[in-house]
Amino acid sequence: MIGERTAEEIKLRVGSAYPLEKELTMEVKGRDLVAGLPKTITITSQEIRDALNEPVSRIVEAIRITLERCPPELSADLVDRGVILAGGGALLRGLDKLIAEETGLPVHVAEDPLSAVAEGTGKALQEIEFLRTVAATDRPRV
Question: How many structural domains is the chain composed of?
Answer without folding.
Answer: 1
